[in-house]
Design brief:
The structure is a single chain. 41% of the residues lie in helices and 24% in strands. The chain is an alpha/beta fold. The strands form five sheets. A nine-stranded mixed beta sheet has the order 11-12-10-9-8-7-6-3-13, sandwiched between helices. A three-stranded antiparallel beta sheet has the order 14-15-16, with no helix packed on it. Helix 6 links the parallel strand 9 and strand 10. The protein is globular and about 55 Å long. The two termini are 16 Å apart.
Length: 396
């Protein structure tokens, strides 16, 4: 198979590129949540300037890999960790470096993740001044007891105050919640989600709690002291989520993400449409298109080792390998089927010179797991509940 330029459909039906994005990982947190398996670390002191210098050097390395004909940056995402522990000056320094190294779209989306515990008016104003135009606020629960059980440093009152500040400072705000928490009923989640929807944010990320290996929750779960909802209750909670968000005009455009039309997270759409993106900072991953070759990149996870590598080599990459076209096609399939818009079969064939077998598609359609909308292959609500199995069947 040969790789060709990736495309997807715009609302008007014409095919457009998903674009190029940059993910900046800030690995530091004030505390480690017991459910979290992200690359996050607690440090008593942080030399912010030194870490930002390292991120800028790694950005320069990525730009050098791409050569003179660099793509236009359409999205930038500061993730973590807790990026809201960064100063506005630090965020601005990174954004200035990106503007120096790449052309930027006039409407570039710049998202920063924030925890309510590190939110304040001056900090948010500084982010907005630096160029952040979208804030993702990790509220996670609207119940103080559950917030404490999740290891969060804020309470509900602080979360609501942070949300009000965010809405005053940024034109676009996303609210994160975790559901399928220990002891959570459908009725309790229905009440909580209705309250969250009433805040009026255009976007919500609603994640089902999963037990990740090598986390404190995994140990508690193994010991039997932490129990999460079983499959039937989890499915009922998921269905309730779809029902309420649809009714509120913020349907799912991806399994865990809901938005008003036009308020979707463009950076995340770039991932799910299998676009190209750079990942910089400790533990970041990227997918870069260098000519006709697609490259997987990842960086050293331990912050101090990453910083040593950047000082020595100009980057902290521990992986920079070509993705075989068959593997890239499978990744593309996996990502696209998470989206409500589904997989554009024509664009997929054009890019990879292959497509899922028509007989297999027909079988899955007959089973009610997939549907065809023109040339788009879309997972049904039932199919989304078993999406990994659907993707495995298509990719077989």
């Amino acid at each position: 198979m040969t790789q060709k330029k990736e495309t997807s459909l715009s609302p008007g039906g014409e095919r457009v590129s998903p674009g190029f994005g940059i993910y900046v990982h800030w690995p530091f947190c004030a505390a480690k949540c017991p459910y979290c398996d992200f690359n996050s670390h607690v440090r008593a002191q942080i030399d912010e300037r030194a870490w930002i210098d390292g991120i800028v050097r790694e950005l320069e390395h990525v730009a050098a890999l791409q050569g003179a004909a660099r793509p236009v940056v359409s999205t930038i995402f500061f993730g973590g960790g807790t990026p809201s522990l960064m100063s506005g000056h630090a965020v601005g320094t990174v954004l200035d470096a990106i503007a120096r190294l790449w052309p930027r779209a006039n409407d570039v989306e710049v998202t920063l993740e924030s925890n309510p515990a590190s939110a304040d008016a001056a900090r948010f104003a500084d982010y907005a001044k630096a160029g952040v135009n979208r804030l993702s606020l990790g509220v996670q629960a609207l119940n103080d007891a559950d917030l404490k059980a999740l290891g969060r440093l804020h309470d509900v009152a602080e979360a609501k105050a942070a949300l009000m500040l965010a809405q005053k400072n940024f034109g676009r705000v996303s609210l994160d919640l975790i559901y399928a928490r220990p002891g959570q009923s459908v009725e309790a989640w229905r009440t909580e989600l209705k309250e969250a929807l009433a805040f009026g944010t255009g976007h919500l990320s609603l994640y089902q709690l999963t037990i990740e290996p090598a986390t404190p929750f995994a140990l508690l779960h193994k010991m039997g002291t932490l129990t999460i909802p079983g499959d039937d209750l989890a499915a009922a909670l998921y269905e309730t989520t779809q029902e309420l968000t649809e009714a509120a005009g913020r349907p799912a455009y991806e399994i865990s993400n809901h938005a008003r039309p036009g308020a979707e997270a463009r950076h995340n759409l770039l991932y799910w449409r299998y676009g190209s993106y750079a990942g910089v900072g400790p533990g970041a991953h990227g997918r870069l298109d260098l000519g006709t070759t697609r490259i997987a990149t990842s960086t050293e996870r331990l912050p101090e080792r990453w910083r040593e590598s950047v000082a020595r080599d100009g980057h902290g990459f521990v992986e920079q390998s070509e993705i075989a076209p068959a593997d890239a096609a499978r990744e593309h399939l996996l990502m696209n089927l998470r989206l409500a818009e589904g997989l554009d079969l024509a664009a997929y064939r054009a890019r990879w010179s292959t497509a899922p077998a028509s007989t297999r598609i027909a079988e899955l359609v007959d089973e009610g797991l997939l549907r065809l909308d023109g040339d788009h292959l879309i997972a049904t609500p039932r199919g989304r509940l078993v999406l990994n199995a659907v993707i495995a069947a298509l990719a077989d």
